[in-house]
Design goal:
136 residues, alpha+beta, two-stranded antiparallel sheet, 6 strands
Length: 136
Amino acid sequence: MSHIPLFLRKLVIRRANHRCEYCHLSQIGQEASFHVDHIVPLASGGETISQNLALACVSCSLRKGAKEFAIIEGTEKKIRLFHPRENNWNDHFEWHGALLKGKTSTGKITIELLNMNRQLILAIREEEILLRRHPG
């Protein structure tokens, strides 16, 4: 695990407005502290620099792990996961109430790999909608 200097950690949190840059869950009201994630993993040559760091909720961070790509089931086609510094979130995802839908193959494979529409997160999002903290 790479040590991330405090100034970079604070920059990432502020830039993300205290939201997971993958699923857009707000840190406010969440018990576990969000992770500062290496978008391109260290194992793949990623650096500990601002442009390679993203704020990620624990769930997205642990499911993403050291992955940059996912293979579409039943094919050999490799799709790059959503990259918060290079991709525009709204180009790849859209809200349907509490349900997150992928608009592109990148959005769809990221939702699938990170299991972004599992029952527990849908329940959390429903509560976030009631508390007016949901971004959709």
